[in-house]
Amino acid sequence: MTVAHSVRVHRSDEELSRDGQLAWKIAEVAVDPVAVDPDVVEMIVNRIIDNAAVAAASLTRAPVSSARAQALDHAVSRGGAGAGVFGVTEVTSPEWAAWANGVAVRELDYHDTFLAADYSHPGDNIPPILAVAQHVGADGAALVRGLATGYEIQIDLVRAICLHKHKIDHVAHLGPSAAAGIGTLLGLDAATIYEAVGQALHTTTATRQSRKGEISTWKAHAPAFAGKLAVEAVDRAMRGETSPNPIYEGEDGVIAWLLDGPDAAYSVPLPAAGESKRGILDSYTKEHSAEYQAQAWIDLARKLHGAHPELADPANVEGIVLHTSHHTHYVIGSGANDPQKYDPSASRETLDHSIPYIFGVALQDGGWHHVDSYTPERAARPDTVALWQKITTAEDPEWTRRYHSEDPAEKAFGGRVEIRLANGETIVDEIAVADAHPLGARPFERADYVRKFRMLAGPVLESAEIDRFLALVERLPELTAAEVRELNIVARAGVVDAAPNPRGLF
Q1: What is the mean pLDDT of residues 347-368?
Q2: Whole-Å CA distances, 42 to 46, 148, 294
Q3: Cβ neighbours, 10 Å, residue 409
Q4: Would you say which domain of life the source belongs to (predicted)?
Q5: In a domain, 460, yes or no
């Protein structure tokens, strides 16, 4: 049975005991030797495939090339054999592999998601945990246990603690979850994991300006940085170093000064001792390379494109309103009050967080492409700009309620569209969840993850390399330490060489 842990701010003179702190409760979950359920193992395999797919598609993009170059400028640290870097055969120190691979996974905004009180991409746990596994020589079974913990902790924190309303970036939940997952992987004791969790949280709290206005390339780097810091936090904790505590509940801690304040209280659900870690099964991946709250809207636009092809011509449309949740309206909708969301010269990262742009393009094209839908030429097309400017969002209390519902059957990330035509008619339609969602029209299963991998990796990996990786990862729980080190993707000759290779300090 899941246990709801009460978390509140304590004055320094209250002397909150270590075993009463959230960081300790997280550590207790991490050290619990409970077996990983078969369906959880199956989903972990799916998500490793998914991460490799989106990483492959981003190998030649500038932020990924930059991060890879930084990583390869660092030698393997003395404590192990090093960890692989996506795209190449060279290895580097595990924290730098976590950095490079984390950027590759995150660059296209195309992997898994979990949305509740806050946002998350729990697949961001995979690069740091896998990097440490490769460095220390952990086997597949240990890697599975570590990843189950990483997913569980991040998803449970996201269920309970909202960072967004205080403009704190969601990677503040990733630092602790990755540290806990690494702790499970390594078989560390609770005291060591507790210190690592505290240090990881302390160093990964930052503002959400990375996802506001003209969104920079740092958006892809932020979770990779959190993963890198989690690796370093574990290293420090293993050396006996301690961390600020109580990190969540302290009088000058995260809750008191960065979140709901000194009078705040949260209820954080964590698995009880002996209870399986099944959080990953509540997460979902993306069929389209766009912010998750845009997934269902792309599917609805695709449907409307087929049923009403006349909507592609802005001359036929007077206005379009997407009635949706608070989060969608204020983060990727017109409620954000970001003029950049309507700017044809905006960055890819900005367009990825503009539902007016995304819905307009998908309505015209009848689909979405991870490259073609974001090109400057596509964004600047006059008919697209004309349609795009007619699209706004509005918060609907019912869709906000459904967004926050704890009932999976009614939890929703879409909304209702009202399209006013120039001839006076109105078209109304709605969608609750994306087609690829577990409750959607076409839920993603193993074959879909494999298809996505083959589609995205095909242009940059040899077919034999694609087959090799898939055959290996599908045996994940049985892999030896040597085979875990082979859980990497190597680009075909010339691909990485043709990518940007910027030089910096290192």
Answers
A1: 96
A2: 6, 11, 26
A3: 8
A4: Bacteria
A5: no
Beta-bridge mates of residue 415: 324, 431
**CATH code of the domain containing 44:** 1.10.4100.10
Q: Which domain holds residue 335?
A: 292-431
Place of tokens 């400028």: 73
Is the confidence at residue 330, as pLDDT, over 90?
yes
Contacting residues for 88 by C-beta, under 8 A, at least 6 apart: 68, 72, 490, 491, 496
Residue 416, pLDDT score: 98
Please name which of 90, 55, 52 lies closest in space to residue 74, comparing C-alpha atoms: 90
Q: Supply the pTM of this predicted model.
A: 0.93
Average confidence score pLDDT of the chain: 96
DSSP secondary structure string for all residues of 143-189: HHHHHHHHHHHHHHHHHH---GGGTB-GGGTHHHHHHHHHHHHHT--
Residue 29: closest CA among 174, 176, 143, 131: 176
φ/ψ (deg, to 5) at 71: -60, -45
- Co-location of 79 and 216 in the same domain: yes
> What whole-number distance in Å separates Cα of residue 226 and Cα of residue 457?
26
3 state DSSP class of 417: strand
The per-residue pLDDT for range 221-254, each reduced to its tens digit, is 999 999 999 999 999 999 999 999 999 999 999 9
- Report how far residue 484's alpha carbon sits from residue 134's, in angstroms, rounded to the nearest whole number: 6
How far apart are alpha carbons 93 and 20 in whole angstroms? Answer: 35
